[in-house]
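User: hey, got a sec? need Mannose-6-phosphate isomerase folded
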Amino acid sequence: MPLFLKPVFQERIWGGTKLTEFGYDIPYDNTGECWAISAHPNGANTILNGRYKNYTLDQVWEENRALFGNDDREAFPLLTKILDAQDKLSVQVHPDDAYAKAHEGEYGKTECWYILDAEEDAEIIYGVNAQNQETLNNMIDNREFDQLFNTVKVQKGDFYYVPAGTVHAIGKGIMILETQQSSDTTYRIYDYDRTDKNGEQRALHLEESKEVIDLSQTSPNATPKALTRDDEHYTQLVASPFFTVEKWNVSQQVNFKKPQDYCLVSIIEGSGEIIVDGEAYELEKGQHFVLTSEDNAVQFNGELTMIVSYV
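Assistant: Yep! Here you go:
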């Protein structure tokens, strides 16, 4: 049976209250992140149903790897979030696997964003305007951020792939679904001189940032594709070495063939049901679950929009 998950909410200086639109009872007025599918130690989800009810996802990963196709990775590889940016996030960069494992003891962080909602004229920062390492270092040291950062206008339904090493920031008034490697390592470059509730500025990581910024990542490069699997149509948002992410629009009925032994599913619009091996489960916007290797005959019914990810 699918593993339905209880979200974990994270308070953020830039967060708001829009996550209530997904039916969540949020704990803070500045709830920035819903960790929707997570086995990360900083926010592992609790399972809500079945024989693993009240286990956490990381526990099940460790105790029954067969549910995940006997995946031999050290840790659960993916993390799905919904972010509500009431204010702009810090400008930041994430390391790749090699740097993160050497310095942080976890995965690197390649991620991608599906824009769930965006205010008019909302924008993100993506990439830098520096042609070489010396110029980059000088611009960071001299805080020439207006010239350094590249901004991009966004709207609902847009998609962005953000490889490790890409300088990026989500702007004010944007809500996204993020699929990422299971990592919580962030190097901040600029935080608008903000202070937290204790009057303290958040730490910056300028030297680490200089070491991991990839100067070749200067503009968005995702090219979603319309594809067909077993006569069912869907959109492949990205296929990378770290994850594949798909968008499925269900109208009435879809017989869903899992693309891998296990996959992650987030319902972002609508309602309906999923029938797995003859057993039905109701679905609504804001639910997240894992289809395991035991879930074979899968059918979705209703009017649903969902994001599916897998490695």
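Quick note: Helices lie at 57-63, 97-103, 133-141, 145-148, 206-212. Let me know if you need anything else on Mannose-6-phosphate isomerase.
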